Each structure stands twice: as structure tokens, then as C-alpha cells.
Amino acid sequence: MNNRNKRSNPESDLYRAILTLKTEQECYDFFTDLCTVSELKAMEQRFELAKLLNDGLIYNDILEKTGASSATISRVNRSLNYGTDSYRTIFSRMKQTGEEDKA
Fold first, then answer.
1. Residue 74's Cα: distance from chain center in Å?
2. CA of 37: how far to CAs of 28, 41, 42, 69, in Å?
3. How far apart are CA 18 and CA 27, in angstroms?
4. What is the average pLDDT value for the chain, to the nearest integer?
5. Model confidence pLDDT, tens digit, residues 20-50
6. Residue 62 neighbours by CB under 8 Å, 6+ apart
């Protein structure tokens, strides 16, 4: 299927496959096999930026702390505030399970 210039397929087997992972190690191993090092680092950075923005840090503090570009911070902020609320869902669940401090 050619998804060029289109949204990804929310019914892809990929998302069901991710839901079968049971441990952090399984998840890490799967994403290590699936993604390049650069892709993983980019996703890790975006998640860290979302956490910092959600915690109320301002752009300049985040720039200093992470070295991320202002464009990346802005993109993550847009997703955090105008996206599907998935970041906030995850942060809430992590807080409930005590995983937030580890993340």
C-alpha cells in the first residue's frame, strides 16, 4: 500500500503488534528492530519534550535542557495542545501506575 502524502493506516497490524508487547525490554527490542537509531532518538526526544511542556516548562528552559530545536518543541507543543490527547492519556496512566518518575 502506498501511503505517500497520506495519513498512516490506524488499522495497520503494526498497532495491534505493539499491543502484544508485555515488558519494557520486549518493547525496546521491537522498536530497536523496527526503527533506525535516529528514528528512536527522535521519538525519545519528542516524548521528553512533551513531558517538559506538560510540566509547564517554557521554550527557553527546554531549549537549554534538551538542545532540541525550537521547531521541534513547537511541533510537539502543537500535538500536545491540539492533537488527539494521547500524550496526556499516557502521562495520566503513567502517573497512576507510578511510572512517571521513571520516564
1. 14
2. 12, 6, 9, 19
3. 8
4. 91
5. 999 999 999 999 999 999 999 999 999 999 9
6. 49, 52, 53, 68, 73
One-letter amino acid of 39: E
Q: Which three cell numbers stand for residue 22?
A: 508485555
Q: Is residue 48 a contact partner of residue 66, using CB atoms and an 8 Å limit? A: yes
Q: Record the cell numbers describing residue 12, joined without a space.
A: 495497520
The rounded percent of the chain whose pLDDT value lies above 90 is: 82
The answer to whether 100 and 87 are in contact (CB under 8 A) is no
Per the structure block, which three cell numbers stand in for 2?
A: 502506498
Contact present, 76 and 46 (Cβ < 8 Å): yes
**Dihedral of the alpha carbons of 10, 13, 18, 20, in degrees to the nearest 10:** 130
On the question of pLDDT at 101 being above 80, the answer is no
Residue with cell 488499522: 11
Residue 101 is which amino acid? D
Q: How far is CA 5 from the centre of its chain?
A: 21
